[in-house]
Amino acid sequence: MSKIEHEVSSGNVFADIGAAEPVDSLAKAELARRISSIIKYRHLNQTEAAELLGIDQPKVSRLLRGQLKEFSMTKLLDFMLRLDRDIEIRIKKHRSGRVPPGIEVLAL
Question: Could you tell me which of 14, 56, 75, 96 has the fewest CB atoms within 10 Å of its CB?
Fold first, then answer.
């Protein structure tokens, strides 16, 4: 029986594929996922979401499809505020030696 070759993940898919800014990319992807969940939970269509977020409908479509190049971290955080979410930023000492320091998005 032959062994299947595999590579152990770093915990960040963007780092694993060689993205330019993997920490930011992962955090933006998680913020976009949370924004999408809130929009779905509220049963908003893209036009309603666009009005609430202060952007046009095509941008909402790109956001929901994970096309995030045009959205800064600041803009995604602004969307969370517009969706009536508080944002808490906590900085702590990195404790794991197996993965590099990063940004984690948590929802309570």
Answer: 96
